[in-house]
Amino acid sequence: MPKNKPTSRQTGRSAHANFSGQHLIRDKSLVRRMIELARLSPQPLVLDIGAGAGALTIPLAQEGWRVLAIENDPLFARKLRGKLVEAEGIRLAEADFLEMPLPRKPFGVVANIPFAITTAVLGRLMDHPAVPFRHGVLIIELGAARRFTADPVTQARILGWRMQFDLKLAEPVPPDRFSPPPRVQCAILTVRRKKEPLVRPSDHARFMGLVTQALRVPAAPLYGALGPWFTPAQLKHLVKLLRVDRSVPVGVLNERQWAAVFETMIRYVEPYRWPKACGSSRR
Ligand SMILES: C[S@@+](CC[C@H](N)C(=O)[O-])C[C@H]1O[C@@H](n2cnc3c(N)ncnc32)[C@H](O)[C@@H]1O
């Protein structure tokens, strides 16, 4: 008879390790690098989303940060609770980050997040400009980091983030820095709220309404994609302003050009023609 495998209780690891992306940092120099990047824009409060056994939580607190460690796996939460005496300034929330209320005061994020929920995590931080998220240093999949930072931006949601935040692929991180190593390459993504957003936060929902519809088919020619809202005369003005040909695919516009499209709409297009706002500008 084959021997029984040890249960997750016996190993102290969750049975849903893959789904929860429990790839713990095993390299102290990676922790130091993340802290160094976080120092570039220090925030009074830092969230460690998916704190695990505290590879980032404890050093962050030892560096003097106030840390909110969020972990939804009871086994890890228990482990981390046992370590809280090692450093002051840590609060542990045993919770699902996607469901819990977010802080109301400005905060940063330094985290090695579960890859399966990367987009949802970033969405919670950046979909609503009223969320007081200021600066992030996050380990995510290299492929995702490339997608979030690529030019041009063809996905409306990512474009929305980039109108308010600067996203940068800081550096790749090889899988052997984690235990167990993930099957994919990883990267550090830094996120910093722009001092001057490209669209006013109060206009964000209206902007999202426009780009969600206009970017439905990124390969569509600009004239056709923006045709539902702009008159031919307004489109003529727009292509001059953007310095593009009327037939370029709408998906090639960069963030600044989108800001100009939006401004033009607000200025010249009659409000009854504007696309419906998408979501809300509030959290
Ligand atoms: C990649 S590990 C990082 C652990 C630790 N920060 C480290 O770097 O060693 C991701 C962690 O997120 C936790 N996690 C997964 N989904 C979560 C969620 N929805 N809310 C909070 N934590 C979650 C997992 O249990 C796991 O401990």
SSE layout and pairings?
Blueprint: H1 8-11, H2 17-20, E1 24-25, H3 28-39, E2 45-49, H4 57-62, E3 66-70, H5 74-83, E4 90-93, E5 107-112, H6 118-126, E6 133-141, H7 142-149, H8 156-164, E7 165-173, E8 178-179, E9 186-193, H9 204-214, H10 222-226, H11 232-242, H12 255-268
Parallel strand pairs: 2-3, 2-5, 3-4, 5-6
Antiparallel strand pairs: 1-8, 6-9, 7-9
Keywords: Methyltransferase, RNA-binding, S-adenosyl-L-methionine, Transferase
Pfam families: RrnaAD
Organism: Paenibacillus ehimensis
Strand content: 15-25%
- CATH topology descriptor of the largest domain: Rossmann fold
Based on DSSP secondary structure assignment, what is the total number of beta strands? 9
Molecular shape: elongated
For the residues shown, what is the average pLDDT? 91
Number of separate helices: 12
Named at the architecture level, the CATH assignment of the largest domain is 3-Layer(aba) Sandwich
Spatial separation of the terminal alpha carbons: 56 Å
Please bin the fraction of helical residues: 25-40%
The side-by-side strand order for the widest beta sheet comes to 4-3-2-5-6-9-7
* Cα-atom radius of gyration: 22 Å
Q: Which CATH class of the largest domain is shown?
A: Alpha Beta
CATH superfamily of the largest domain: Vaccinia Virus protein VP39
Q: How would a textbook summarize the main sheet? A: 7 strands, mixed
Bound molecules: S-adenosylmethionine
The number of distinct structural domains comes to 2
Low-confidence stretches: 1-18
How do the SSEs run, as a string of H and E? Answer: HHEHEHEHEEHEHHEEEHHHH
Structural class: alpha/beta
Family: Belongs to the class I-like SAM-binding methyltransferase superfamily. rRNA adenine N(6)-methyltransferase family.
Binding site for S-adenosyl-L-methionine: 23, 25, 50, 71, 96, 112
Organism: Paenibacillus ehimensis
Domain Ribosomal RNA adenine methylase transferase N-terminal: 30-195
